[in-house]
Fold these 2 entries.
Entry 1:
Amino acid sequence: MDPTLRRTPGQPLPIPTAQPKKKRTSVVSFFSKVSWTLSVQRQEPLKNVFFILAERAQDPNAKKRHMAMRGLGVMASETPDKVKKYKKIVLDLLVHGLYDPVSAEVIHESVRTLTIILGKFQGKCLGSFFVDITLQTRTLLDDENDNLRYSAFVLFGQLADSVGRKWKTFFTSQVKQTQDSLLIHLQDRNPQVAKACKTTFRACSPYLKERKEYSFQSEEDQRNPKLFWQLSYCHPELLHFLYANKIL
């Protein structure tokens, strides 16, 4: 027996000097939630909370950036009017979060928060940020992380539903470049990602055009140019099968 673990009767048990990493993380998460709840209960001005989160979102510590992005997501969900008031600052922070060079957690939380914002405002608040968000989200569709890939498909589908006239040409070009990813992930190893991809494929179908390298096999099919559109919208998984087997 280790001599350091021996104790005489009546001697108090030794106190652990460190907590397991997983437990420490849970404690940090717990106190973060408690702090947020107490702030709301004390009716601390949301403006102050917002600027605290904005400052933390630029912190050198990745964990603090992650928690800040999550906090912005909570604000977007619970107090959308406040987020709308500072939308340019919020969107700028989230776009920087999308391009975080270190933390996949920060990127993922930024994607999720943007999804909340688009859901609250029907995509009418992105302005010129639409370009940066679309470009980076498109690259995340093939990410190795299942959760991030799933969230990216959800966000890309929302972007497709919220395209304004100003960005229609731009988004159409992005969808064309994304078509292979959309087809591939219809058969994603993760069922939830495959389901999200199918929904996004349908949202993107108005921006898809028949690709020149694909040609219908029969004259009857050539006389039916709507076939591609019907398949892409109603049965994208069938369209993927036809392409994969070179039937189309």
Note: Confidence is low (pLDDT under 50) at residues 1-19, 38-43, 210-224.
Entry 2:
Amino acid sequence: MNHTLEARPALKFDRNELSGAFGDIGTDFPLLVSMILIAKLDTASVLVMFGLMQIVTGLVYRMPMPVQPLKAMAVLVITQKLSGRILYGGGLAIGVMMLVLAATGLIEWVARAVPKSVVRGIQFGLGLQLASLALKDYVQAGGLPGYGLAAACFVLTLALLGNRKYPPALLVILLGVVYALLFNVDLGALGRGIGFTLPHISVPNTADVLTGLVALALPQLPLSLGNSILATRQITEDLFPRRAVGVRKISLTYALM
């Protein structure tokens, strides 16, 4: 089906954009915190750079576009307790691989070769996986109050789904903050932890890159191709049919970030 392409939209900031900004927090934040703790990453460097990548993505695409946290790499780092330098090396390695795929046009061949049913299956499977993770690892950890919070958020989301006056994500986040303050957060420790720290640059050596390539980048590549590139292209086509985004552009920004 042919669609007339829309002009490049202006940036806008309203409650719906703010709500959309929390779209990936359920997966991004736990993975980021876990990797910071396990791999002993510099917190300021990780969060500042991740935030900057979100801003750049918004400026480039002018639509809701995920900054992928590389879930397979994150799980491997967490479960195998790999060092931060190996993680940096793996990130550099997969960035180079994706850059080659984008620059040579091979990513477009991959997009043509993979049927849409496979992409839909990846989307569906990932949704089931995340729902299962939430039910097994997070909801149960909170006990009865946790189940109550999950049920309230679920009902609230269904009731306000598609409501542009009261987008549900903001209310869900507010409920989560209130729950945390009541049951989990030590305000004294939180206050003592507030400070100002500049990020710093870490450069992996050749051994780190090679180890990261084998241990992290190669296991991550199939998931990145399926979820980060093909599924992302498909969902932008579904939701924004007049603002086509090609797999080559997505791959290029993926590689550079």
Note: The radius of gyration is 20 Å.
